[in-house]
């Protein structure tokens, strides 16, 4: 797990290309504290940079950027390829030679053996740049779930890329703000892909590669793997449970590969508890990291202890208090790279995992999206009913005072994002226009002016799963988990997003995959005898901090005088009176902080 950066340019002198990439790497030092490398190719007019967090093959053989033995290709790689042993065996039989035990070298050999079809063979989380010397072509490649970030900027005849937005700013490559970022952020609580806070800096789509031809300075973006349509669903629930049981255990076994200390985040919920217990079966010297609070309604120690009593190995538990939140908030916001209303929890638990000596941890992200763990999976059917009402009638809903009624005004727009915003949105367009002192037509144009979403069909649980996977998990959970864990030099692995496991789950008939009465019932039943009843047979809580209380007491967030404009100050008053959710005031705080 690392941080990467690079520049390809037909106009910049080689010394400037190399110098700027060095600055980019310095800005990314936190994500790769173990080593740094820069590869400069003057003939190809490119430089690749790398900051290393050593997880597999801790020796100097893992130094990057890396070339194959014959130096036909160079790579700078962020991530893990969990099936690299199997691929390496195939490649050795095909005549490839290796000088290290790294998965990085396997990527190079696989590309040289199979070309771009090699990208679909990788099982893992990855973002890399690969330079083919003979073809004078650079490829930017991102994993199929978008677990690892990869941003790019194209200007005139140049391509720049990096793992974080701050690298472009630090090197002076792209410094102008995207004027629409605050609109998107106030609506969604995150910056949705492919957009960023910077003008003309975009996120490469998951499961795609960008190929840049150096002599012509032309490029194309191509999907390297698209999910095939499901022709034969698994309809036997017993068969489904057996497949889930076996495939998920295989996914965990893959992701325990490490030459550095590894552990598990344990919150006390279903996903992290199951993960901890299954890891314990394969890895007895398990380290668990947990967080608890003095605020009783948020404290999950009772459920954490039920699981911990069944585990051996070191068990780390950390108390987080109001004082800690206030002390570290400036550092947390700086680590976010782009504004988000989530991630505070990820920052704290990653901090403690790093302090407890870990370099890699496993997380339960992804289970809710696969098995219907969110309220949206049941609420989506009501959207179908509402969509039968003429859209014009929803326009007056923004006059309501209560938030859940105001959000119905989204449905005046015949757009799938409006459906999602009714389920998970923050501010309605009229409020955003007032906060930013702009025209509501501009807000609507930014949010609903184009539609890049596929046809999602009926308002059913599969529809909700697409929303939660491609909008919420992609733009919020995965991005925040990556950037905030890497701010502490920590790698987070997500076995529920193993490619083979995801493909299996998507082959299960929705009628048995989703359960309206018990969220994630199929997952729970697939591991009877492993997961304690007390852990799953209770209301869903999630990995939640007491942020409503903490932010209301925070001297800046709740300070009316630091907010500009009457609409913003009215919202602060509403928050202090207990009528506004913390996520909305936190979004407002960040917008005013960045303007």
TrEMBL record:
One of its GO terms (molecular function) is ATP binding. One of its GO terms (biological process) is asparagine biosynthetic process. The active site is at 2 (for gatase activity). Keywords: Amino-acid biosynthesis, Asparagine biosynthesis, ATP-binding, Glutamine amidotransferase, Nucleotide-binding. It is an enzyme of class 6 (ligase). Pfam families: Asn_synthase, GATase_6. L-glutamine binds at residue 103. The keyword ATP-binding applies. It catalyses: L-aspartate + L-glutamine + ATP + H2O = L-asparagine + L-glutamate + AMP + diphosphate + H(+). Residues 2-215 form the Glutamine amidotransferase type-2 domain. ATP binds at residues 291, 363-364. Its EC number is 6.3.5.4. The keyword Nucleotide-binding applies. Pathway: Amino-acid biosynthesis; L-asparagine biosynthesis; L-asparagine from L-aspartate (L-Gln route): step 1/1. CDD domains: Asn_synthase_B_C (cd01991), AsnB (cd00712). One of its GO terms (cellular component) is cytosol. InterPro entries: Asn_synth_AEB, Asn_synthase, ASN_synthetase/amidase, AsnB_N, GATase_2_dom, Ntn_hydrolases_N, Rossmann-like_a/b/a_fold. PROSITE patterns: GATASE_TYPE_2 (PS51278). Belongs to the asparagine synthetase family. NCBIfam families: asn_synth_AEB (TIGR01536). This is asparagine synthase (glutamine-hydrolyzing). It comes from Mucilaginibacter xinganensis.
């Amino acid at each position: 797990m690392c941080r990467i950066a690079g520049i390809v340019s037909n106009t910049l002198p080689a010394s400037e290309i190399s110098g700027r990439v060095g600055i980019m790497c310095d800005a990314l030092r936190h994500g790769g504290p173990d080593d740094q490398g820069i590869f400069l190719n003057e003939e190809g007019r490119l430089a690749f940079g790398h900051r290393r967090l050593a997880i597999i093959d801790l020796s100097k053989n893992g130094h990057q950027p890396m070339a194959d033995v014959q130096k036909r290709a160079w790579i700078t790689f962020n991530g893990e390829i969990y099936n690299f042993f199997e691929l390496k065996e195939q490649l050795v039989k095909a005549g490839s030679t290796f000088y290290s035990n790294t998965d990085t070298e396997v990527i190079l050999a696989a590309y040289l053996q199979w070309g771009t079809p090699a990208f679909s063979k990788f099982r893992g989380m990855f973002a890399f740049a690969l330079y083919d010397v003979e073809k004078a072509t650079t490829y930017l490649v991102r994993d199929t779930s978008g677990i690892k970030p990869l941003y790019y900027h194209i200007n005139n005849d140049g391509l720049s890329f990096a793992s974080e937005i701050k690298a472009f700013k630090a090197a002076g490559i792209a410094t102008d703000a995207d004027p629409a970022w605050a609109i998107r952020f106030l609506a969604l609580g995150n910056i949705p892909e492919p957009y960023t806070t910077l003008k003309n800096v975009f996120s490469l789509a998951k499961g795609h590669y960008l190929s840049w031809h150096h002599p012509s300075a032309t490029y194309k973006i191509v999907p390297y793997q698209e999910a095939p349509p499901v022709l034969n669903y698994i309809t036997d629930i017993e068969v489904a449970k057996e497949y889930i049981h076996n495939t998920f255990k295989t996914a965990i076994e893959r992701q325990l590969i490490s030459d550095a200390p590894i552990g598990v985040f344990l919150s006390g919920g279903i996903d992290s508890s199951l993960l901890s217990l299954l890891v314990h079966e394969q890895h007895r010297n398990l380290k668990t990291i947990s967080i608890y609070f003095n605020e009783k309604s948020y404290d999950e120690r009772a459920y954490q202890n039920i699981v911990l009593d069944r585990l051996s190995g070191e068990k780390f538990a950390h108390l987080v208090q109001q004082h800690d939140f206030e002390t570290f908030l400036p550092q947390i916001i700086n680590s976010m790279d782009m504004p988000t209303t989530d991630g505070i929890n990820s920052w704290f638990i990653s901090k403690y995992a790093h302090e407890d000596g870990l370099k890699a941890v496993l997380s339960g992200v992804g289970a809710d999206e696969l098995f219907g763990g969110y309220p949206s999976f049941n609420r989506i059917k009501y959207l179908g009913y509402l969509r039968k009402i003429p859209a014009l009638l929803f326009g007056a809903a923004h006059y309501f005072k209560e938030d859940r009624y105001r959000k119905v005004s989204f449905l005046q727009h015949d757009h799938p994002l409006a459906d999602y915003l009714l389920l998970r949105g923050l501010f309605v367009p009229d409020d955003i226009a007032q906060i930013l002192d702009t025209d509501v037509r501009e807000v609507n144009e930014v949010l609903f002016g184009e539609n890049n979403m596929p046809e999602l069909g009926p308002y059913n649980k599969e529809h909700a799963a697409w929303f939660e996977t491609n909008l919420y998990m992609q733009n919020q959970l995965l991005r925040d988990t990556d950037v905030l864990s890497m701010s502490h030099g920590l790698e987070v692995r997500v076995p529920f997003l193993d490619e083979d496991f995801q493909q299996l789950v998507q082959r299960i008939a929705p009628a048995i995959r989703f359960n309206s009465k018990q969220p994630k019932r199929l997952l729970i039943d697939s591991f009877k005898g492993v997961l304690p009843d007390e852990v799953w047979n209770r209301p869903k809580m999630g990995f939640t901090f007491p942020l409503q209380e903490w932010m209301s007491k925070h001297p800046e967030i709740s300070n009316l005088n630091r907010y500009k404009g009457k609409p913003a100050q009215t919202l602060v008053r509403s928050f202090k009176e207990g009528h506004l959710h913390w996520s909305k005031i936190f979004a407002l705080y960040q917008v005013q902080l960045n303007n």
